[in-house]
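Side project, low priority. Logging it here so it doesn't get lost.
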Amino acid sequence: MTDTPLRIEVKDAVGAAMNFVSDMYEGQRLRDLLLEEVEMDQGEDKWLITIGFSLAKEESNSILSPSTSRKFERNYKIVTIDAHSGKPLSMKIRDI
């Protein structure tokens, strides 16, 4: 028998990360929420999950025209998930 506590499966960690990002941006227009990267930090026993998504960004067409158009800006976040409990611990910007 091993003394190492059981870790959650990678699919469960990814699901927790995606749900966390969706919850943090509730009410905003997220598009194309996708898994980008997965890494296990063995020393810390944490999953590092990179999630990419497009976020609506309104822009005015010109100073003279008050109409706005929507553009979408791609964002990447690294969500840290506790490998034992499956709970999100943090979310950081992932520079590309």
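Brief comment: The longest strand covers residues 46-60.
Revisit when time allows.
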